[in-house]
Amino acid sequence: MTILLRVTGDQLKILKANAKEEGYAINYSTFAILVGLIWKCASMARELPNDQETKLTFSANGRSRLQPPLPLGYFGNVIFQNRTVALAGDLQSKPLWYAVNLIHETLARLDNDYLRSVIDFLKLHPNTKRNRLDETRSPNLGITSWSKFPTRDADFGWGQPFHVGFCGIVSNEGRVWITDDVAKEGNLSVLIALQPEHVEGSAEHLLKIKAKEGVARGGDLQSKPLWYAASCILETLMRLDDDYSRSFIDFLKLHPNTRRNRLDECRSPNFGK
Fold first, then answer.
1. E strands along the chain, which residues?
2. Which residues form the signal peptide (predicted)?
């Protein structure tokens, strides 16, 4: 089963700003921050035990990393598969920046020497198996980002596209695809394939929300870094896509007497905005 999340440019800016507020001098990329959040939330949704090792596999473009630079317009395959490993307990209990930094360090090592050593290895071992399905299935995760593809500029004779999606290639459990949201510049679409039972539990474990309200323990808000509260709000907003909004409207039609905006829902210890 797949779920679609839309992430706005403003939400990504909030996550980046939180990293600086927590004292991280590293300018983490949008890719590292978003993938770190997905990896952390997927481990929570799957309810992985603390001692479970989880592997994150993702692709990286080597065009800008090889020396001398490849000719402009080179059409060959320069995509390299990368992997980083962590314990599920660390992903779930440590700050988001733990996962983000693992991804950042993996990308940082992809220099000219490393990539050419990979090319030499594949020449010596041409039958090496790549992209095995079990490398992305639970407890693992596989990420493919197409966010840099110029899909917004595609024009087949009737103007700019209003939606870009995938076919059956996303049906493999544990696969995640990130694309540019052509509806609004700066936004991203994230398509995640998980087992049905993990998707059903995502309200609590993946998105940390219930309905439209963000829920957190007072002790967590006071003791954890600022990113914790910000991520709770961000993940709540991420759920509010077209499908969710329409299901909410349908629910209210079926239950017109539902009580909303009760005063005790925003009185202490709660908060209403």
1. 2-7, 53-61, 79-87, 141-146, 175-180, 188-193, 209-210, 213-214
2. none
Lowest mean pLDDT among 129-138, 192-201, 250-259: 250-259
Question: 25 near 48, Cβ under 8 Å?
Answer: no
Q: What long-range pairs does 159-168 form, CB within 8 A, spacing at least 24?
A: 164/189, 165/191, 166/191
Name the pairing type of β-strands 53-61 and 175-180: unpaired
Domains delineated in the chain: 2-241 (3.30.559.10)
Q: Indicate the helix (H) or strand (E) that contains 21.
A: helix 9-21
Q: Are 95 and 24 spatial neighbours (Cβ–Cβ below 8 Å)?
A: no
**Confidence label for 95 from pLDDT (cuts 50, 70 and 90):** confident
In the predicted model, is pLDDT for residue 270 greater than 80? no
Whether the bond into 225 is cis, omega within 30 of 0: no
CA 159 to chain centre: 30
